[in-house]
Amino acid sequence: MSGDDHHHAPSTTADGNDHAVERAMAHVAALSLGAAVDDTLRVTLNFHPDRLTATGVPLLARLAEDGVYHSQFVTGTSNGGLTAHPGGDRWRWESRIFGGAYDTEPDTARPVYGALNVRGRSVGGAPRFGSAHLRLTAEAVGRATFCYPDSFYEPSTFGVAAAGSAVVEAALADAVETDPMDGYVEAQVHGPVLLERDVEALVLDPCFRDTEVEARARLLPVPLEWHGGFRLTVAELRRHPDYRGPRFVELGARIAEAGVLDPRVVGDAVRAGADDPQALKKVWHYLAHFGAPQA
């Protein structure tokens, strides 16, 4: 789902069609190769916890109200391109890979997207899509399908929990990973994702300690954890003009506070609305790549 389509806001319903889920998972299972996925691996849903929904409500506040995490088909919001509509790229991808199982289903029945955290990163399986993540339970892994690479590239390597080792091996074989923003195993979690049932923890960046983000996070019915924190100095940022481009380096240097970027700084700039959100997304890529906490 390159184009940063992974960012999903919650929805108010938890509808799901068991028959469609079974059809979709069976279709992918027939394409899957290999042994069972390591049962210690978890699916993570990376997102930016300080963003607003399309109606201007803080994302975590909406999540607390609803208790459900849904796809952009429901929410109409994304961390990038919006192609989740009939005839859009996301719709066509789902029709192809899930054997048309969801073509006539309500949007609330569709899967949500995350990543199988095959590298065991403290920041989640796909930090490209946000500094925070929901870590799902082992049971949720059992109703997920997987692909590598990202579905944007129309991959041919698929998996399910019972036969997903080929997908994991394909991702790990890319040992010389030029960009940690890529190389994740995309996961599609079928059936509604309910906070109380399906989430082991919400993991936040420590830059959000003692902020409204932490206060809202503590209203969720899930444990709160912290990772090591994304942090990038302007001096280090300026060493990598070729990564996303010099103009994004300069934008990052301009919005930095006391010569440092962290997720809160980037989020403040997004909500301020003075700069192109797509340009700020590239600044986030710089921070997530070069400012990630050490393993």
From TrEMBL:
Origin species, per record, is Streptacidiphilus jiangxiensis
UniProt-recorded name of the protein: DUF3626 domain-containing protein
Against Pfam families, the record matches this protein to: DUF3626
